[in-house]
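From: lab user (bench 3)
To: helpdesk
Subject: output format question, protein + S-adenosylmethionine

Hello, I'm new to running complex predictions and I'm not sure whether the block I got back is the full result or only part of it. Here's what I submitted:
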Amino acid sequence: MATEKRYEKEMISFRDKYPQLTTTYASHGMYYYPARFIPQVVRYFIDNYTKEKEWIIDPFAGSGTVGVEALLTNRNAICLDLNPVIEPLLEAKTYIPKRQPDISIYFNLDNAPIYKPKWSKIEEWYPPEFLEILEKLWGIFYENPHPLVRIALFKTSRKFSLADDQVPKIFRSKKKRKQIEELLKKGNYERTILDFFEKSFRAVYKSSVEFKTRYKGGECIAKGSIDIVNYELDRDVNHLLTSPPYGMAHEYIRSFKLELAWLGKDDNEIRELTKLEIPYRNNGILEKFEIHSKTYEEYRKLIEEKKPKLVKVYEIYFKSVLKVFETLGKNVTDYMGIFVGNATFSGIMPHYDIIFTEHLEEHGFEHVKTYVDIIKARKLFKNRKNASPNGIETESLVILKSKR
Ligand SMILES: C[S@@+](CC[C@H](N)C(=O)[O-])C[C@H]1O[C@@H](n2cnc3c(N)ncnc32)[C@H](O)[C@@H]1O
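Helpdesk reply: Thanks, we reran it on our side. This is the complete output you should expect:
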């Protein structure tokens, strides 16, 4: 689609800029999260656009990559997300262990207290034999809470559930059912579950120690259950760095129902969070929000013609995300970095980077540069028919500067 104005672009490979860093280094790989930032993107923004001790906000913080990178580079971060798991994830990922916690209390379950999740569907996701053991492990945990143990218990509770652990959704696969049936047949599953828990704990502890050795300073504030579309900051921050949801690519709350259940969330709390997720929420307060972007209008027309049923979700997606950037942008004194992959609305791929830029140019920002990650682009262009499952072709980091 033609746009009159050309924005300065630079091809880049964020991974190649930091060959010494892996995507899971320090505590980044502690727990799975869909569409997680690669830490190299965050590091590049921090190194090139921020200074030590400055404040960075991430309004779609997910698993908290910005929070971790901030503390590894002596910056401060505010990490907000609708998904409540941001709090336990960041608590663990930024935890500085003084000594290795003693997990031997988990190895005798005979008189263990029992923790029963409030979520009414929990029994549909576990064979009763496994659920009974997990309820005891969580019972012990709630009497002796520890941020690192909680992550090992999340891993264990997913592993022994019927939810496929390879799929970023809560989803029952035949393969997983078969695995669970085999484990049940083998018997002695208490030992198997405890062994897995111990192994998971060791991996979590190891990444926590790696975080500790690399920690440079700063503070990280994490808050979950925040509907960012309706949120205002009561202070200024230097920068905003985020990757918003990618079109219709994921349903985050749905993916995390098991974790939310073990965190004590009930049906009603989970339902209310689901209703606020972008772009699956209703229009409500967004009805009156105006988007100032020609490119947005062009794609809206195209979607109206080709996929009329998706107009609503397209509209809600851009209105929600742009309302967040416009509102929080008023409190940003320096740079905004927005990282986005071009995911499709059922085959139609709007230029997210251009739509965001056009709108924000009308709301106090000027475009500095758009970085296009060439590794992703190269891989996908080589084999065009084999587009990624979410239809993501390239990933871009848009840099805008506040005119304040
Ligand atoms: C692409 S992910 C961010 C991943 C993150 N950059 C990381 O490294 O883990 C987008 C996030 O937007 C969040 N989100 C969706 N709707 C939201 C809403 N209404 N308010 C706040 N966050 C929301 C999702 O929960 C998800 O974590």
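A quick orientation on your result: The pocket of S-adenosylmethionine is lined by residues 33, 35-37, 60-63, 65, 81-83, 226-229, 243-245, 252, 276-278 (CB under 6 Å). Let us know if anything else is unclear.
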